[in-house]
Amino acid sequence: MNVSDAISLYLTHKRSLGHRFLTEENVLRAFRKAVSDRPMNGIEAADVLVFLNGKGGPVTEYWAKKYHVLSGFYRFALSRGLVTQSSLPRRIPLQTAPEFVPYIYSDDELRRLFAACAAACPGRCHLEGDVMRAVLILLYGAALRLGEALSLTIADVDLSESLLQVRETKFFKSRVVAMGRDLTGVMSDYLALRRNRHSTLEASPFFCCRDGGPIPRHMMQAAFRRARDFAGIDRDGGSRRQPRLHDLRHSGVVHRVVAWYRRGDNVQDLLPKLATYLGHVDLHGTQRYLTMTPDLLREASLRFEHYAMEAHHA
């Protein structure tokens, strides 16, 4: 059996089990392109290694991701008799590139980023600056994923109740997301502008391009990079380690937890609710978002010191 047919079988199998498998599909398509569509048994270990190593730079998280995807693929192929042996390398090199750490935007950087949206979307751009600004504020304020925000329709946004209906997300689950007063106000202002430009049919995209159509993910990402440059937001480590659009979600989560600490809230009790709000299946996914910024470390230390003092005097 050829590589493309084996990949199709594997994807069908995984999706029948309820997995979305979009990132994995992209990895497998890239693998098929790298080794060409030839018989599975004709792929040598050297061919797989060339795909894993890419351009021969440091071993990154993406190297490990590709290896993990191919491991599952080859286990499936072996169990179905599609290959007689795995072509994966037996020795896995240590990751030499530092692990990516999400960027947590400061309040000042957020203001500069939102203000730069107009410059990032000039008149010739299919994406309007005020639309982009509304998307970025929602990503931060409601801690949404980009795909979730761009998939919203008019019917999904209930401003009278300050609620968003987020449908068929990363884990095939839908959820209701509450918005605060300020965020609801920003979305109300945006919708008032939108009504003057485009259709307000319930099935229409809530965020749309100048022509009224949905905003492609790549368009938003390119505009974000321009806005980030205009705002002067960067960090050391080269182009691959620059602040990302997805880091707005990380920032929203971290800032919310810091606020809980400062108010004296019971953070441990609130974390499961935060996991549900974010659409995570368990707390493990949420914990990855809690990057230890100086503010978060300081507030957590103050809380621990408070408890320690109470225990000492008990």
UniProtKB/TrEMBL annotation:
<keyword id="KW-0238">DNA-binding</keyword>
<keyword id="KW-0229">DNA integration</keyword>
<keyword id="KW-0233">DNA recombination</keyword>
<feature type="domain" description="Tyr recombinase">
    <location>
        <begin position="100"/>
        <end position="302"/>
    </location>
</feature>
<dbReference type="Pfam" id="PF00589">
    <property type="entry name" value="Phage_integrase"/>
</dbReference>
<dbReference type="InterPro" id="IPR002104">
    <property type="entry name" value="Integrase_catalytic"/>
</dbReference>
<dbReference type="InterPro" id="IPR011010">
    <property type="entry name" value="DNA_brk_join_enz"/>
</dbReference>
<protein>
    <submittedName>
        <fullName>Tyrosine recombinase XerC</fullName>
    </submittedName>
</protein>
<comment type="similarity">
    <text>Belongs to the 'phage' integrase family.</text>
</comment>
<dbReference type="InterPro" id="IPR050090">
    <property type="entry name" value="Tyrosine_recombinase_XerCD"/>
</dbReference>
<dbReference type="InterPro" id="IPR013762">
    <property type="entry name" value="Integrase-like_cat_sf"/>
</dbReference>
